[in-house]
Design goal:
Number of helices of chain B: 9
Radius of gyration of chain A: 19 Å
Distance between the termini of chain A: 32 Å
Number of domains of chain A: 2
Keywords (chain B): Oxidoreductase, Peroxidase
Region (Disordered) (chain A): 44-75
Number of helices of chain A: 11
Oligomer: heterodimer
CATH architecture of the largest domain in chain A: Up-down Bundle
Number of strands of chain B: 2
Largest interface: A-B, 72 and 70 residues
Radius of gyration of chain B: 18 Å
Helix content of chain A: 55-70%
Structural class of chain B: mainly alpha
Strand content of chain B: under 5%
Order of helices and strands of chain A: HHHHHHHHHHH
Shape of chain B: globular
Protein name (chain A): CMD domain protein
Strand content of chain A: under 5%
Organism (chain A): Serinibacter salmoneus
Distance between the termini of chain B: 28 Å
Largest sheet of chain B: 2 strands, antiparallel
Structural class of chain A: mainly alpha
InterPro entries (chain A): AhpD-like, CHP04029_CMD-like
Chain lengths: 232, 208
């Protein structure tokens, strides 16, 4: 199901007839099937379920919008979206895998050479989070200083290209040490060519994925513990 | 970096239940310049007063899905008693925000958790001590401890939520619907915290 979605993204064909109840990315990643106990529970929060899917589609199969549809400036390409997604999910290790597969496939079709560079960035950036130094005076005793990942230090800027390298550096900040985010980080994105609208989209993309991967991880534990209980 | 306001920022010094302002680091559209599509993305038109939502309205489709998911996760079933009580959804949001370090988000949701849960001293202990110390010191009831421990485990990277958390939560009375509400509430704040932490900053309101 997710493979279907990613193909349509890459070819730029609008996804018009997808019934979200049949192609729910979270259900597919967890392995929830119609009739499962968790299927019924999730449908008890139908809006949350549908809108989680809608956010995924808005980020990874965006519909051209209004008068700006043909305007390249400020938009974030599918190539960048899938590369950043692969990076964010990679930072989550095995929990990210069920969601990462579709992005890897889409990226293979869009720009296969990038996969190795993104995976190298994941390997260089991965560490336990969240950590970081607080801005707040009263919280200095809780500071957990730690490494700042930069694609450039990992020798990856050339392979990624400067705009994507900046997006990936920002994604590492948001995933691992969000408490350290500062205006200078936004200036870095601006300096790499991202405008305010693109920064909002990139920020949503990274932040949404940290939600989606946690829903998948949490529901997977529930799914496994319920089926164990059923069998014993 | 251009900032949106000439107002002086008075950063809060610690986690707090007090009302805070949030100041954007990027220029949001002016309310009167929002397109119909962006207004639709706000879901509730009143949100146009808020610079955070006006900034997110630059990607209206994502904002709309975010907002509708948020409202459902925190409100549906909370009145008819199905799933997790609202106060405990807010507690999960607070524990996640405390773990990620989002002073602004923690202030908003600590107020809800304290007011709706009628146990402000436990919320204050969580804010003041942080998740680990609050749990170690026994500052929280058994049920709230289980919820806070699970929310913190879900918030970490790599995600540390496991069968032991589910077992503890079932022991304190959570059923499948309540467990899904907890996972959704904590998970949603991994999303919200990162937006609020990276697009602006909290400020103590100036006395008028």
């Amino acid at each position: 199901m997710s493979a279907e979605v990613s193909e349509t993204e890459v070819s730029g064909v609008e996804v018009t007839d997808v019934d979200v109840t049949e192609a729910d990315v979270i259900d597919a990643a967890v392995g929830i099937r119609a009739g499962d106990a968790l299927d019924a529970v999730r449908r008890g929060r139908a809006t949350a379920r549908e809108q989680s899917q809608a956010a995924h589609e808005a980020l990874f199969a965006p519909q051209p919008s209004g008068e700006h549809s043909g305007d390249e400036k400020g938009s974030v390409s599918a190539r960048v979206r899938h590369a950043v997604a692969l990076f964010v999910l990679g930072l989550h290790g095995t929990a990210g895998e069920p969601l990462a597969a579709a992005h890897r496939e889409a990226l293979a079709a869009a720009d296969g050479d990038l996969i190795a560079a993104v995976e190298a960035a994941v390997a260089a950036a991965s560490r336990p989070g969240p950590y970081g130094v607080y801005a707040e005076v009263g919280l200095q005793g809780e500071n957990e200083p730690g490494e700042v990942f930069r694609s450039q230090d990992a020798g990856l800027t050339e392979q990624l290209g400067a705009p994507l390298a900046a997006a990936i550096d920002h994604a590492a900040l948001l995933v691992l040490r969000p408490r350290e985010a500062a205006p200078a980080d936004l200036a870095r994105l601006t300096g790499a060519g991202w405008d305010t609208t693109a920064i909002v989209t990139l920020s949503q993309l990274v932040s949404f994925l940290t939600y989606q991967v946690r829903i998948v991880a949490g529901l997977t534990v529930l799914q496994e513990t319920s089926s164990k209980e059923t069998h014993t | 970096m251009s900032t949106t306001t000439t107002a002086r920022v008075t950063p809060p010094e610690h986690f707090t239940r007090e009302q805070l302002d949030w100041l954007a680091w990027l220029e949001p559209p002016r309310a009167q310049d929002l397109t119909p599509e962006q207004i639709a993305g706000l879901v509730e038109p009143k949100r146009a007063e808020n610079p955070y939502f006006r900034l997110l309205a630059l990607d209206p489709a994502v904002l709309e899905a975010r907002t509708r998911a948020d409202l459902d996760i925190f409100h549906t079933g909370a009145r008819d008693g199905s799933g997790l009580p609202r106060a405990e959804r807010e507690l999960a949001a607070t524990a996640t925000s405390r773990t990620n370090g989002c002073v602004f988000c923690a202030s908003v949701h600590a107020r809800f958790a304290a007011t709706l849960g009628h146990r402000p001293e436990e919320v204050d202990a969580l804010l003041a001590q942080g998740v680990h110390t609050a749990l170690l010191e026994g500052s929280l009831s058994a049920r709230w401890s289980a919820i806070v421990r699970a929310a913190e485990a879900l918030t970490r990277t790599p995600i540390a939520f496991g069968p032991e958390h589910v077992a503890e939560l079932r022991e304190v009375g959570l059923d499948d619907a309540a467990l899904v509400d907890l996972i959704s509430s904590a998970g949603f704040f991994s999303w919200a915290n990162r937006l609020m932490l990276s697009l602006g900053e909290p400020s103590v309101p100036s006395v008028p």
